[in-house]
Structures are given as C-alpha cells and as structure tokens.
Amino acid sequence: MNDLGYALKVFRQIGLLRPVLPHRLVGAGVQLVKWGPGLPSGVNAAAKRFPRQTAIIDDAGEITWSELAGQINQMTQALKDRGVQPGDSIAVLSRNHRYMIVALVAIMQVGGRVLLLNTMASRSQLGDLAGREDASLVIVDQEFLDVAQDVDRSLLVLGWADEDAPDDLPTVAGLTADQPTKGHPKPERHGQIIIFTSGTSGLPKGARREEPKDLMPLVAFFGAIPYRGNSTVVLAAPLFHSWGLINFAFGLSTAPTYVLRRKFDPAQVLRDIQDHRAEVLVVVPLMMQRLIDADPAVVERTDVSSLRITASSGSALAGDLANRFMDLFTDSVYNFYGATETGWVTIAGPKDLREAPGTAGTPPFRTTVKILDPDGREVPQGETGVIHVGNDMPFGGYTDGNTKSFADGLMHTGDVGYFDENGRLFVSGRDDDMVISGGENVFPRELEDALIEHADVSDVVVRGIPDEKFGQVLAAYVVLKPGASATEDDLTAYAKQHVARFAVPRRLMILDELPRNPTGKVMKRNLPDFD
To answer: What strands, in cross-sheet order, belong to the sheet with 395-398?
Structure first.
C-alpha cells in the first residue's frame, strides 16, 4: 500500500472521512485551512463537526465542543484586551482540566508563546523563568500560588480556582465571562508551545515543540495506536508533559470526549472507564503500576472491558509491567518510546509486548531508526549502539539556543539499544547511564527488570556509584510492597540468581518510596547516598 492509500485508511479509522452534514464539513474545512495543523484548528473543527458532543468531562462537570470553542474565543479576546501580542510569552502551571485547555488554545490563537511548566517547578524556578522569558501573564492553579510568590502579582491569573480563591486575582473563568464567542482572525505569528523540564537545580530547560507541517504525523501516530473517531479518552497523563499533550493535540482530529482529572486516583480512573465506556486510557508507566496495585475489591467490581487502548509513555516499562497490566485488565497496552525532542521513535502494541516483553516496538509510518556506533556507522542487527531517529515531527531546539546532535541525518536520542531478529527495538538505557564495572559495560535496566519481578518488590531503580576496586558498581534502591519482609540480603541473593555476575548490586538500600516526578521518572540525583 502506498503512502496515500495508507493515509486514507488511517483517516477512515479515526473518523476524518466519516459522513457529516455538508455545512458542518465545510465549516471544519474552513478552520483547518485558516489555522493549519495545530490546537486552534483541532478544537474549532471539532466544534463545527460535532457541536453538541461532550468535549471534556472534568472535576467541574461537562462541556460540549461548541461551548469549549466559545470559551476559548472569549479567552482569546480577554488576552487581547490585556494587551497580549503575537510572540508574547505566557507561563502556564496547571493540572489537567478545562481551564488549562481554554488557556492553551487561546494563547495559540493570539499567536503567543506558551511556557508549559512542570507541576514540580519550584518557587525560584517560576520566578526566574517569568523574568527571563519576559512573561506577559502567569496562569497558575490556585494550589500553586505559593510557588508563584516571586512573580509580580499583577501578572497572575488563576486557572483552577476554589471557592476561597483570593478576590484580587482574576480567573480564566472570570476573564471569559461576558466576552464575545465569535472567532478570531489568524495572528500574524504562529503560536508556539515550549515544554519545560522539572529540573532539580537551576532553571528548567525549555524545548520548543514545532507544529507539524501537514497531517502525516497523524497517520504515523494513529496507524500504530488505533484510536477511533468520537471515542472517550481518559487522559490521566499530565498535559504539561509531551506525552499528555500529544495525545490531546493529535486526538483532536478524532473529535473524542476527554475525561480529565486534576489528581490521579486509581479508583477514579477505573470508574471513569466504566461509567463513560472509555476506549482509550493515556498514562505513564507509574500509573499502570498503581492501577495494578489498586484495591482488589475495586478492580473486581469495576467493568473496564471497553478499554481498547492503554497508551503509555514517559518512562521505561519496568520488567513485565505491560503483561501484568493486560493480565488484570485488557490486552490494550501500546507503549510509545520517544521524547519531547524526538517525537516518536518506536511503538509496541499488545502483540509485541506479549511476544517480546520489554521491547520498545518497531518504527511507525515514515520513521527511520538506526543503531550507530560512536563513529556514526550503522551496527549489525543484535549489536548495541546509540539510537538515532528521523520522523515528521520537527524539533525547534532548546530555548538556550542549543539543539540535539545528528548523525547520518538522524537525531541522537541519548539512548542505547539494539534491534532483534524481528526488527523490534530494545532500549538498554541512557548512553550516560552505562556503568563500567571491573571492565564490563553494564546498564541498570537489566537489574531493574529482574528485581521488579521479586514478589516483595513494588518499585526499584538502579544507578552506578564510585568504587575503589571496580571503578563503578551498581547500587539498587528498592521499595517493598506493604507487609513484605524481604531484606537487603534476600534481594541481593535473588539478583545473583537472575542476572549476570557483573550486574549483581554491590550496594542495596530499601526505601519507603522513590523520588519520582509527575511523569514517573526517578530523579536520581535526589536518591540518598550510601555511607
């Protein structure tokens, strides 16, 4: 099948070619031509095609596509009234809810720069960032007002506001009231989203995410993760992260109903899937683990049989996590391997994960992945090297002017891995995570995958630490399940039975919890040192 034929097949699957009333189809086409690919066209086109369909279900209730588009237009006018111009920067520190969506799309409609902040941003980071980027506004949820203490109060707007919100601060809901709902002309400058890392010291690093030039990225994404038109999507992954954002942004083309919650609660997620017959769940791996560990009584009485897709990304799938999730719920896991900078690299579906647990999958449509040696030469199948990728998702570089390195026209991912005989990619770890212990090259992933399978272990991370004799050795940090009694000696003995000699941890520490950020990645620099 040629590229056009494949694209048409995917467009039918996601409902883009579904028959609708002619005037609605024309209206949607006008929005796409006007705005080009991106958030404004996605929302406005959905509002034209399915105006009365529920767009968002959140902690504030329900809102239709027509109502959502109207509120976005109202917020767009409110931003203009406050003097926001194309190219101006607006920081957003928010959890998942409608007011975040209204703010994001309105900023894009003005032609502004969205500074999308991790909810773990510190007070000093937010204050310094707002000053450095000359932010015209800082939109924060009420719960983050303490973090915004160093920001000029005249710049603050509340996204989510409780009943006890300060009277002197405007809210997104208040700014949209009484504004006209009519559409706006396309700005002279295209809007831009910059995603900021959490950072543990200094300012977070900002990555510019360019809008796609055409619809081919949709074909790649939905060709590998088979969304269907007008599905209900429980979007649990945070929207400030590239994984949550790409599922929202690309999902707009399917005109879904999004279920957004400000806080992740496993029981609530399961109820949302059941009550709304959700077909899609978007998570990070830590959320999958918490769903597996949910109250068995809740799991037993909740019907999640409607779940066709559990789309996961943000950090590595530990051990046999995907299969344990599918054994308990449905065969639905699609694991997306990629990054903010790279977009996607490979995607593994349920069949891949059943047949080859731990695989990162295969490259999707119009994606090239090569394993290169340090000199930029492609290595033979089965050999480990640095993963490089090329696709249709352009990276705009970092806000400090730097960008990723390239070889053979492909972007350096920062990871190492290999392809098996079936063309499936396996990621060994970050290239800077490799530990040279007694002359052996060791990656923490092997030991992590082994320890997580221990019956008493609920969480684990491994890193290299200095050692006088071996240069470096592996150190494991383990969290036990409630009531578990395994000791450090027990776990070390278990490791000796399941990994190569040089991958056995020389040091092991049992912790109450690992220092993870909201996307589930362990912040290794916050781990305690060994005596």
So the answer is: 156-158, 135-140, 89-93, 113-116, 192-196, 206-209, 395-398
Does the model's pTM come out above 0.85?
yes
For the chain, what is the domain count?
3
d(Cα 349, Cα 334) in Å, to the nearest integer? 4
Q: How many angstroms separate the most distant Cα atoms in the chain?
A: 75
Q: What share of the chain is helix, strand, coil (3-state, %, to 5)?
A: 30, 25, 40
In this prediction, residue 399 has a pLDDT band, given cuts at 50, 70 and 90, of low
Going by the DSSP 8-state scheme, the letter that residue 314 receives in this structure is S
Same domain, 148 and 202: yes
Mean pLDDT is lowest, of 15-29, 188-202, 493-507, for 188-202
> Does 232 lie in the same domain as 197?
no
User: pLDDT for 344-393, tens place per residue?
Assistant: 999 999 999 999 988 999 999 999 999 998 888 999 999 999 999 998 87
**Residue 411 falls within a domain, yes or no?**
no
pLDDT over 90 at 206, yes or no: no
Would the pLDDT of 432 be above 80?
no
Verify that 263 and 240 share a domain, yes or no: yes
Kindly state whether residues 88 and 228 are assigned to the same domain.
Answer: no
Q: What are the contacts of 397-405 at 24+ separation with CB within 8 A?
A: 397/207, 397/208, 398/205, 398/206, 398/207, 398/208, 399/133, 399/194, 399/205, 399/206, 399/207, 399/208, 400/205, 400/206, 404/341, 404/342
Q: Do residue 127 and residue 252 come from a single domain?
A: no
* Cα–Cα separations (whole angstroms), residue 311 to 22, 69, 329: 33, 26, 14
Residue 480: domain span? 435-526
- Is the torsion defined by CA of 284, 290, 296, 302 positive or negative? negative
For Cα atoms 504, 510, 511, give the angle at the middle one, nearest 5 degrees.
135
Give me the pLDDT at residue 122, please. 83
89: which 2 tokens? 């920067």
